[in-house]
Amino acid sequence: MPVLSVLQKPVYQLLFIQLLSVVVLVIYRPSNVDSSWTASGLCYILFILINSIFIWSAPRLWVYFFTSLGFSILYVLLAYLVLWAFNELLKLKGSGESGMIFLVIIYHPFLLLLVVFLKWVYGKII
Fold it and tell me: What's residue 5's pLDDT?
């Protein structure tokens, strides 16, 4: 099974980027809670970008759109659990206010809709 066909599915994108997030946290070794939230939030932005790119070739566009949003919410919940465990394990100090980086979730539907619109325009032109 080619890697791109596997990565086209939002569930595998979630698993891959979540695993990447854990690896980044282990390698980066944040010194406080805010740094760990920021590193994980940047991985989440990567998830949004990859997810928005793969919607272009999705066979069932709206099914992909809504499942992507569902997995996006699931990603944030899993990230919370992973970061909570990571911060407790390393006994990191801080307020955790950098968790606000996950507010970029509000841009995910807009980015997906922008790609859908561009695909529609491309289809009308070609």
Answer: 78
